[in-house]
Design goal:
16 helices; single chain; GROEL, domain 1; three-stranded antiparallel sheet; alpha+beta; seven-stranded mixed sheet; GroEL; 558 residues
């Protein structure tokens, strides 16, 4: 900046990098497209996997968009915004993360063409906003209702979410397990269905076949009884949940005990033992025969509990205590002195079993259990981790289908219908905004096009065929990636919750609009500024040598 008499005025600190106008927009759009391209090939049942290796050498193999972006160490702020799109989709729905990011990238790509035609960014964002609102209305119209007792339809939703995630051979049994688990933990509040997915616990156990995955009507925890003399199995168990330790507590203030003779020492030890006996007696008096303790249990107390025939498990996680309370109906008691018979929960059976060479405690046959456990089996660590992500996605979509009570078909059919509807809508809007709406419509076609490409189909011919089917009245047609053709998605049982589409499209539109509004990027120099010394020019390409400041280690993914 130049001041009076041509003297420069320094507003920004030395070494600060600044990009303005078209340069800033081009850079931001390039970064957004790079992020979308990094996950695009994972979309669909025949999507490819990514191998991610961190700085410690730990390996993750997945085609889950949220996991890929979470593992990528992105630096550029726009890249972080794109990652947030996936995180939001994952938290809200549990599936559709890749779809959301891919649509975001395509909206940015289409906006670049509009900017080249001298269409102002505010006109583009207004058009995108109108298109997004119209898309929400169209999704409502194309949605069909789903009932709570329609297990077959719910299993279709679960299987669609699992397809392409390495669990195909067992997806029918897994889908049935997921639907049972979600319906088990469902509650009604003020007439509305509320489902807390936290109460569906997934325990991964390596070894065995995936088909051996089972649903426990209760809770299974990775703990064993504290004393070998305690019963391994208790029928009709009365369960106490303690938030306090079964130990002699230390004094809160500093105290000193002077012992001058062996007799006094023995009296002191006897007194401590009596205190522990009293604690055990209180548990016994309540009627409990199984105790889950969130904290520690003294060795002597373990012995006394064993002699009275009470099974005890210690150091139980707080989250597991909440699940145990929901499953058994027991109250979590903070003070042992307050333990009453009314605080106890019930289970038909509490037993210790060995699963994959590890001892676990199973709390089963709980009456109306509102917390359940899925014991997930798999051959290797990588297989079981990917299966867990598939289960996570399917639990999320089944919950959303039940809560929203609406579903749409998959296979790219909704996106193509939306694209055709938006093109028709654009002609009614008029003005320059219609160009942005048409670009939005074109961007949505990236989903069926990518599905076709991942299956090895000709994307242009496939899209032409798909448009022809839709315009001819066959509006349920989408990409059949299994048989490499265009097919009726209803007959193939490819179903997704409506909320997946709504969330993905609205999030993609919002982030694209936000990125397009940025016309000035000011980057402060720092010690980690891509290798540039303080006060010196920034290193070309930003950190790691990737354009837009993306880490060089992910270069092969772009």
């Amino acid at each position: 900046m130049t001041g009076l008499a041509g003297q420069p005025i320094f507003v920004l600190s030395e070494g600060t990098e600044r990009k303005r106008g078209r340069d800033a927009q081009s850079t931001n759009i390039s970064v957004g497209k790079a992020i979308a391209d990094s996950v695009r090939s994972t979309l669909g049942p025949k999507g490819m996997d990514k191998m991610l290796v961190d700085s410690l050498g730990d390996i993750v193999i997945t085609n889950d968009g949220a996991t890929i972006l979470d593992e990528m160490d992105v630096e550029h702020p726009v890249a972080k915004m794109m990652v947030e799109v996936a995180q939001t989709q994952d938290e809200e729905i549990g599936d559709g993360t890749t779809t959301a990011v891919v649509i975001s990238g395509e909206l940015l790509k289409e906006s670049e063409d509009l900017l080249d035609q001298d269409i102002h960014p505010t006109v583009i964002t207004k058009g995108y906003n109108l298109a997004s609102k119209k898309a929400m209305e169209e999704i409502e119209e194309m949605s069909t209702d789903i009932r709570f007792d329609d297990d077959d339809r719910l299993q279709q939703v679960a299987m669609t979410a699992m397809t392409g995630k390495g669990v195909e051979r067992a997806r029918e049994s897994l889908a049935e397990t997921v639907v049972k688990a979600v319906k088990q933990v469902a509650d009604k509040e003020n007439g509305e269905l509320v489902i807390e997915t936290d109460y569906v616990k997934v325990e991964k156990k390596q070894g065995g076949e995936m088909e051996e995955t089972e649903l426990i009507d209760g809770i299974a925890i990775d703990k064993e009884r504290v004393h070998p003399g305690m019963p391994k199995k208790t029928e009709n168990a009365k369960i106490a949940l303690l938030n306090s330790s079964i130990e002699v507590k230390e004094t809160e203030t500093d105290a000193e005990i002077n012992i001058s003779s062996p007799e006094q020492l023995q009296d002191f030890l006897d007194q401590e033992e009596n205190m522990l006996k009293e604690m055990v007696e209180k548990i016994k008096a309540s009627g409990a025969d199984v105790v889950f303790c969130q904290k520690g249990i003294d060795d002597s107390a373990q012995h006394f509990l064993s002699k009275t025939g009470i099974t005890a498990i210690r150091r139980v996680k707080k989250s597991d205590m909440k699940k145990l309370s929901r499953a058994t109906g027991a109250n979590v008691v903070t003070n042992l002195n307050d333990l009453e018979k009314e605080d106890l929960g019930h289970a038909g059976k509490v037993s210790q079993k060995k699963v994959s060479d590890e001892d676990m405690t199973f709390i089963e046959e709980c009456e109306d259990a509102k917390a359940v456990t899925i014991i997930l089996r798999g051959g290797t660590e990588h297989v079981i981790n990917e299966a867990e992500r598939a289960i996570h996605d399917s639990i999320g979509v089944v919950c959303n289908a039940l809560e929203e009570k609406q579903v749409v078909l998959g296979g790219g059919a909704p996106e193509l219908k939306l694209s055709l509807a938006l093109k028709e809508y654009a002609s009614k809007v008029g003005g320059r905004e219609q160009l942005a709406i048409n670009s939005f419509a074109k961007a949505l076609e990236i989903i069926p096009r990518t599905l076709a490409e991942s299956a090895g189909m000709d994307s242009i011919d496939t899209l032409v065929n798909l448009r022809s089917k839709n315009e001819g009245g066959d509006k349920n047609y989408g990409i059949n990636v299994i048989d490499n053709q265009v097919s009726d998605m209803e007959s193939l049982r490819v179903v997704e919750p409506s909320k997946i589409k709504k969330q993905a499209i609205s999030s993609a539109a919002e982030v694209a609009e936000m990125i397009l509004r940025i016309d000035d990027v000011i980057s402060s120099s720092g010690e980690s500024g891509g290798g540039a010394e303080a006060g010196g020019p920034p290193a070309a390409g930003g950190p790691g040598g990737m354009p837009g400041g993306m880490p060089g280690g992910m270069g092969g993914m772009m």
